[in-house]
Amino acid sequence: MSDDKRDGSKPEEQDWAAAKAFYDSLGATSKKPKLPKPQTAITIAVSSRTLFDMNEEKDIYENEGVEQYVKYQEEHENTPLAPGAAFPFVKAVMNVNVRLRELYPESEELFDVVLMTNNHAQVGVRLINSINHYDLGIERFCMTGGKSPIGYLKAYLTNLYLSQDSVKVREAIEEGIAAATMFTPKKEVVLSDIQLRVAFDGDAVLFSDESEIIVKEKGLDSFFEHEKEFENKPLAQGPLKCFLEALGKIQRKFYEKNERLDCPVRTYLVTARSAASSGARALKTLRSWGLEIDEALFLAGAPKGPLLEKIRPHIFFDDQMFHIEGAQQLGTIAAHVPYGVGQRHHVKKDAK
Hints:
By secondary structure, the protein is of the alpha/beta class. The chain has two domains: 35-177, no CATH class; 196-344, HAD superfamily/HAD-like (Rossmann fold). The protein contains 14 helices and twelve strands. It has helices at 3-7, 11-26, 48-51, 55-64, 66-75, 87-103, 124-133, 166-174, 210-218, 220-229, 241-255, 275-288, 305-311, 321-329, and strands spanning 42-46, 52-53, 82-83, 111-117, 140-143, 158-163, 179-183, 196-200, 265-271, 295-298, 315-318, 334-336. The strands form two sheets. It has a ten-stranded mixed β-sheet with strand order 5-4-1-6-7-12-11-8-9-10, with helices on both faces. One of its GO terms (biological process) is nucleotide metabolic process.
């Protein structure tokens, strides 16, 4: 009888256990914190151009070619790259890990950030130096040398993929992976350094686009009638439901230590739905999934930007570009989720 049949574990789990045991034995006396276990971690894959501001380098690549691009990166490898759109989010995620390790010193159930980039390996030194400069603690890299990294996302057990390349984000969504195209806000705002704040739109983000289809095809009155009729029927899940689920898993670890009021993760539902006419179904859907949301904000079609300006999330997910653009103008770090019927009406360009 094979070993995996005797102990009930799968071969890939045995391989991980053996590799982990060897790695731990090498670092038994190391002061660096243990890496999260991929099977239990919340893995966030982020592109290098999203984590760092690489617009100047991108111009060199597009105008002078890959060889000049690599040469420039090597010549400047000791110059840290400036923070990009995803930088505050990643920094906040790492701060949550610090708090988790205080409560659960041996836990491997943490956020794990992977740098997922189609950069060439020769650029790796500058990326490593930049990550160490900002003390981001990113240990896992995937550098694909000009090829799309999307095929590696599932192998890295990715829970969320963030990029500024809308084509790659769409490919990830089609593969069933939560993903979004990130945008740099038009102005800088001061964000919380003690709490990770994540804001979600509802339809076509946390939920499916079934309600949006009704609005587009039959109008608001039919939508309100439909939501009332099916108030007790949960909406189907959208592409970011699994990420909210992962955040809830982390939050519960703090709740179990009586840290609910001091939890370093806070979630927001920011939806164009109106509370009286269609809000109940959204809340009942979350309840049916066993998920909590810290704040639910129903705007009844009003602009989201001014309210997001007050929340100051580290990231805001929405499927509609006009909400993304409005949030950007007022300093919100916004991420477009290219999913659902709304994409037929808005042609999306790469983030700048």
